[in-house]
Amino acid sequence: MGRISGPLHDVAGDAGHHDHPPRMGFFTDTSVCIGCKACEVACKEWNAIPEDGLTFTGMSYDNTQGLSADTWRHVAFIEQRRPVEPPEDYAGVDVLGMAADGAAADFRWLMASDVCKHCTHAACLDVCPTGALFRTEFGTVVVQEDVCNGCGYCVPACPYGVIDQRKDDGRAWKCTMCYDRIGDGLEPACAKACPTESIQFGPLDELRERAAARVERLHADGVPEARLYGADPDDGVGGDGAFFLLLDEPEVYGLPPAPVVTTRDLPSMWRHAGAAALTLIGGVTAAYLAGRKR
């Protein structure tokens, strides 16, 4: 096992890959997502993912509800109602008419295609006892379903709640970033199908530069709430291999505001457990020797 916390420049090298290609990733720009769900369909078709119910919640137009073993790309539909600034002078303004027309509030859709984050420090990988989860030469995290024993340790380990077990066989499943496609020089199916280039695929360093420039452009265009999520190598997971441009707080999109790799404190926990065990052994030994002397 390599490092499990803190900034890590070369995740593939840390995993034992030598002379590997650059780390690849996703940049999802939610500001241009139109909610078409082409990414969901392409992901299912390419990866032969089972149908997952298509159940409407009654709360939005979303019919897949979230990421799961059978939904590796999920397009969230978030309807927001925000107050409109009132006019400075109400003279001649039909206030009752404005209210009847719904003009007292501004509605907007926030649409975002969520996916596995392929974390720099992936707790799911750290806790897997069989090696079913592994780090590829592209820096992504993949599940080998034929090696997975269905223990489920990876599910609570993920700080994003991404990885899930399939009910019919108990094995864990999640996005592979189309490992089979990128190994042949192709882009993942979701990015290929996206009509607005909301989902962008490429070398992670290049994507981060492109994303930073996009945020600056949006700020200059009067969208001060634009921000990046998961792009910072100094965050609690060492930065994500799949990061996002958001137009509101992460919680609005169902994302944790400050994710931390759940295995970060394992070394200190083992040290403390070892010290406690030695102390216990020492106490038992001392008591035994004292008894022998009596």
UniProtKB/TrEMBL annotation:
PROSITE patterns: 4FE4S_FER_1 (PS00198), 4FE4S_FER_2 (PS51379). Residues 24-54, 107-138, 139-168 form the 4Fe-4S ferredoxin-type domain. It comes from the Bacteria. The chain crosses the membrane at residues 269-290. It is found in: Cell envelope. Residues 11-20 have a biased composition (Basic and acidic residues). SUPFAM superfamilies: 4Fe-4S ferredoxins. Residues 1-20 are annotated as: Disordered. Its main location: other. Keywords: 4Fe-4S, Iron, Iron-sulfur, Membrane, Metal-binding, Repeat, Transmembrane, Transmembrane helix. PANTHER family: FORMATE DEHYDROGENASE, NITRATE-INDUCIBLE, IRON-SULFUR SUBUNIT (PTHR43545:SF6). This is 4Fe-4S dicluster domain-containing protein. It comes from Actinomadura parmotrematis.
